[in-house]
Design goal:
- The structure is a homodimer.
- By secondary structure, chain A is an all-alpha fold.
- The first copy, chain A, contains eleven helices and no strands.
- Chain A has two domains: 54 residues, Homeodomain-like (Arc Repressor Mutant, subunit A, Orthogonal Bundle); 139 residues, Tetracycline Repressor, domain 2 (Orthogonal Bundle).
- The interface between A and B is large, with 69 and 66 residues.
């Protein structure tokens, strides 16, 4: 390989990340990616295969970066949801990429299945230790947690515009984040830790 | 207008609904819509304006159909979430359309803002009657409820594949729906109706 192949690949991946996040798989243009990376278009095919392959790689890399930055803590799912919320706010491209992927690549790549499997296992272990409710299956816990975590970003702009503050105002995000992590707590806390079989609420020192 | 103009418009809208749900705004082809509707492509421009206008109309119509089919019940938000879940399962195109719209039409059309406004008002009234918790703002209640309702459909296929049953198996959906509506109940029930303590209230920090 020529000495600058690594640098060129890196530039191409960065350009592809922005192009795919903006335009999706069908809408992305390989020419624009090559131009933004100041590289020959042919090098995309040499290094990464076709456009679909490059898209899948970009999505997989972005999810791997996310997993590195936000460790999964099955024993503190509200904390995980809060950290994930913060990360996704700072990296709006990640939700755009997964959104396009959902619409344009509906089959589950085996690598992604393997990425989810340890999380399901960790939730299952946390359930056995009575740290997470057993009333909800691990897959449902994780799906509902992710639904809550991405609710504000995925809400219609029309709905977001009806909050008391501008949708991306820090105070607005603080209020939403607190409601969201409380909802994750209510969803995941075992009823038995409260001494009340019906409650979804953890015990609080203030309860009279 | 020629006598069959209404029938032609209806066929064009149906064809556009399926084309946009499948391919999104950028990916849709006006030629394919005209062909599927057995109509002249020129009639699309005559009746509906450009492709963006047609897309916005199709999304707005599909949300109006949904609102007609699933009345908003602020005094029974878990029931609303369950009915909405059922409707979206039966009409997967609606979530695809809103997904594309989110990615490709990021600005809130004023008509959609007006469609959300009464829901926010109804939640606010329900809060005043102590039917919904006041600890979460109306916009956050609705956004988090929608996040929960769409969590399974929006989950990664990789995550869905790790449930104990096939993702769209009736038993799987029944289990998920029960967990989802319970989470909406925990999110929305006022702490004061604590006959059953089934609340979403977060643990209050004890500040000295």
């Amino acid at each position: 390989m020529p000495p600058d192949a690594t640098a060129t690949k890196k530039r191409l991946l960065t350009a592809a990340y922005h192009e795919f996040a903006q335009f999706g798989l069908a809408g992305a243009r390989v020419d624009r990616i090559a131009e933004a990376a100041q590289a020959n278009k042919r090098l995309i095919y040499v290094h990464f295969g076709n456009k679909d392959d490059l898209f899948d790689l970009v999505v997989a890399n972005s999810l791997e970066d996310l997993a590195q930055a936000v460790p999964f803590t099955a024993d503190d799912l509200p904390g995980y949801a809060g950290s994930l919320f913060d990360y996704l706010l700072d990296h709006p491209q990640v939700l755009r990429l997964t959104g396009w992927s959902q619409l344009e690549r509906p089959d589950a790549p085996p690598a992604q299945v393997e990425a989810y499997r340890p999380k399901i296992g960790a939730i299952s272990s946390a359930q056995q230790q009575d740290l997470v409710t057993t009333e909800v299956t691990p897959a449902d816990v994780l799906a509902l947690l992710l639904g809550l975590t991405t609710a504000w970003a995925n809400a219609s702009p029309a709905l977001r515009s009806l909050a008391d503050q501008p949708p991306w105002d820090p105070e607005r995000l603080r209020i939403h984040r607190a409601a969201m992590t409380a909802a994750v707590r209510a969803l995941t806390t075992p009823p038995s830790t409260s001494g009340d079989e019906n409650t979804a609420r953890p015990p609080t020192a203030l309860t009279p």
